[in-house]
Structure formats: structure tokens, C-alpha cells
Write a structure and sequence with these properties.
Largest interface: A-B, 23 and 32 residues
Strand content of chain A: under 5%
Oligomer: heterodimer
Largest sheet of chain B: none
Number of domains of chain B: 1
Helix content of chain B: over 70%
Number of strands of chain B: 0
Largest sheet of chain A: none
Number of helices of chain B: 6
Order of helices and strands of chain A: HH
Helix content of chain A: over 70%
Structural class of chain B: mainly alpha
Structural class of chain A: mainly alpha
Radius of gyration of chain A: 21 Å
Number of helices of chain A: 2
Strand content of chain B: under 5%
Distance between the termini of chain A: 59 Å
Chain lengths: 54, 225
């Protein structure tokens, strides 16, 4: 907040903080889903390869 | 990522960018509150959408307890996770709004307290899923919590009438220049929430499928022994 107050004085720093925090949270959750999706995809590929070998 | 989902992700990204332009450039600053009033276009849609998502979770939870279908459970789980994200953002942005407007980061007034309780119920919901080994048992516990959360939503909504410092007026009281931006905000965040729920649901479905595969292969190994 102190850093934001220096960059953007007055109430604008609060506005900026709200949008930056929300944006990071949404992007963070999106990244979490994407990591989970890639892990699941990798596992499926491994299972498919193993069954092909058998 | 499926091509249909990719399409939705791009639509959502464009809508959010247009929304940011409308909020920061087109919408006029409030005469009394100034620039900080623009938090409203994020805070209120998040709160409204969290209520809507928790109602859906409650409905799906009842449906799951009747049908015992894992697909319904996964859908309910996806809605609850995204709902939790929305309620946390509503609380955080509300707190950031409160500091310059009310002079405090937090106050134990009815609307804030009941919203915090709602958030806690969904933290319990997510924890019940994460820390219970038995899938069916965790689904049952989470469904009961989902129903309790759904019951709490009207309490949060009407808590504003109990000596709350939250304004009692509706969004329809806004001047048209602000109202259109607010309505667009609701649309943009709804699409974003829909995309997140869709993505999460697909991942949960794939994870369930993998868990089933693992169970089958374990059973086969046991039979061969």
C-alpha cells in the first residue's frame, strides 16, 4: 500500500490495489486450472503409451 | 484445451478488456467519493455472482444427494471453487473500499460478518474435499455444506436491513452513465466465471476418469496375484 501511495497518490491507490489484487487472483486461479489440466493430460498420455506397449 | 473452450476464453478476455476501458475511461467519477467509487464495478458484480454461484451449488448439492451422480458432484465442486474466489474478491475489494470511505479496513457490521461466514462455509467445503480420502464421503459432506451455504445467501442479502452501513438502495438508482458500465461489468464477469467453471469442470471430470482407471488397474493387479 505504501508503494502504491507513492506511485498513485490519494484514493487512486486504493482503486489500483483492488483491481491489481483481483486480476492476480483470477489469473492465479486460471493458471492453477491449467497446471491441473496439463498434469491430467500427461497422465492420460502415459497410460495410453503403456497400453500400446502391452 | 478444447477449441470451444478456447473460443470462450478469448471472448472473455476481450470482454474484460472492454470492461476495464469502460470502468477507467468512460464511467464518470462519483461526485462525493471520487475515483475510489470505481471499485464498485468490481466489488458488486463479484458479490452478486458469488450469491448466484452458491445458490447453484446448493441446488446441485441437493440433486447429488438424490441422484448420487459423480458428474453432478464435479459440477458442484467447480461452481463452489469459483464461488469461493468471487466471495474472497468481494470481501477484499470491499475492505479496500472501506478504508478510504469508512476510515476502517474492516468493521463487524451485519453484511460484512454474514459474508465472511458465507466465505468460511465454502472454505470448509473446499477443505472437506481436499482432506477426506473417501470420495463418496467427501462428496456427501461437501453437499451438506453446499446446502448450508445456499441457506446463508438470503441471510447475507437481507442483512443490509439490520443496522448495516451498506447502502440499501438498488443499482437502478444509479445515473444511466454508471448503470450501463455496471451492467456491462456484470456481463463481462459472468462470462469469465462461466469460462472458469467450464475449465475446472473438465479438469475435475478428467481427474475422476483417471481415478477410476487407477482403481480398475489396481483391482486387476489384485486379481492376478
Amino acid at each position: 500500500m505504501i508503494l502504491l501511495q507513492t506511485v498513485a497518490p490519494n484514493n487512486f491507490s486504493f482503486l489500483l490495489a483492488a483491481y491489481v489484487i483481483s486480476g492476480c487472483a483470477i489469473l492465479g486461479y486460471f493458471t492453477y486450472i491449467e497446471i491441473k489440466r496439463r498434469q491430467a493430460k500427461k497422465l492420460i498420455q502415459e497410460i495410453a503409451l503403456e497400453s500400446l506397449k502391452e | 484445451m478444447k477449441s470451444g473452450t478456447k473460443y470462450f476464453v478469448w471472448i472473455s478476455a476481450v470482454l474484460i478488456l472492454v470492461n476495464m476501458y469502460l470502468i477507467f475511461v468512460v464511467a464518470p467519477p462519483d461526485m462525493n467519493l471520487g475515483e475510489v467509487q470505481r471499485i464498485f464495478y468490481l466489488h458488486v458484480p463479484m458479490a452478486i455472482l458469488s450469491f448466484l454461484l452458491f445458490f447453484i451449488v446448493a441446488g446441485l448439492s441437493v440433486w447429488y444427494l438424490i441422484k448420487k451422480d459423480p458428474k453432478i458432484d464435479n459440477l458442484s465442486n467447480a461452481f463452489a471453487e469459483v464461488g469461493l474466489l468471487c466471495v474472497v474478491l468481494a470481501l477484499v475489494t470491499g475492505s479496500i473500499w472501506g478504508r478510504p470511505v469508512w476510515g476502517v479496513w474492516w468493521t463487524w457490521e451485519p453484511r460484512l460478518t454474514t459474508t465472511l461466514i458465507l466465505g468460511m462455509i465454502y472454505v470448509a467445503y473446499v477443505m472437506a474435499r481436499a482432506y477426506t480420502e473417501n470420495q463418496q464421503k467427501s462428496a456427501k459432506v461437501a453437499s451438506v455444506l453446499g446446502i448450508i451455504g445456499g441457506i446463508n445467501v438470503p441471510i447475507v442479502y437481507y442483512s443490509v436491513k439490520l443496522r448495516s452501513i451498506h447502502p440499501e438502495g438498488t443499482v437502478w438508482d444509479l445515473p444511466s452513465s454508471m448503470l450501463y458500465v455496471f451492467l456491462f461489468s456484470i456481463l463481462a464477469f459472468s462470462v469469465l466465471i462461466f469460462v472458469l467453471v467450464r475449465l475446472r469442470y473438465h479438469v475435475l471430470e478428467t481427474e475422476s476418469y483417471l481415478a477410476k482407471l487407477e482403481l480398475t488397474s489396481n483391482q486387476k493387479t489384485l486379481e492376478n496375484l
